[in-house]
């Protein structure tokens, strides 16, 4: 691979090998396909995309619940949240269950039991 390249060039290489470019195109859809970039720039974009750095929330359960509640109310209280974590750190998901869910339950923002049909 040359020192600088475009997304179009990489996509053409993927397609030429009969591999599916779908996942690659999904990850790079926010980039200009004709913009030339270095390997470092490409790596930085891929890292940012896969880690969702622009969507990270951290802090105490109260701080995170405040943020989620603010967003929930601002959007008309329709829907919910999708919580993801890196597979290498399963404790993060357990922290959500052990600490954040009880805080949201205290606020009436998360059910405390499941009823039939729900």
Overview in brief:
By secondary structure, the protein is mainly alpha-helical.
Structure characterization notes:
This protein has 118 residues and is mainly alpha-helical. It folds into two domains: 4-51, no CATH class; 57-106, no CATH class. Helices cover 52% and strands 3% of the residues. The chain contains five helices and two strands, in the order E-H-H-E-H-H-H. The chain has helices at residues 7-16, 22-28, 39-51, 61-74, 90-106; strands spanning 4-5, 37-38. Strands 1-2 form a two-stranded antiparallel ribbon. Helix 4 packs across helix 5. The mean pLDDT is 82.
List keywords for this structure.
two-stranded antiparallel ribbon, 5 helices, 2 domains, 118 residues, elongated, mainly alpha
Spans with pLDDT under 50 lasting ≥5 residues?
Answer: none
Helix content: 40-55%
Estimated share of beta-strand residues: under 5%
SSE succession: EHHEHHH
- What is the averaged pLDDT score? 82
SS element count, helices: 5
The oligomeric state of the chains shown is single chain
Query: How many E strands?
Result: 2
The total domain count is 2
**Rg on CA atoms, Å:** 20 Å
Question: What does the overall shape look like?
Answer: elongated
Q: Largest sheet at a glance?
A: 2 strands, antiparallel
CA(first)-CA(last) distance: 52 Å
Structural class assignment: mainly alpha
Major sheet strand order: 1-2
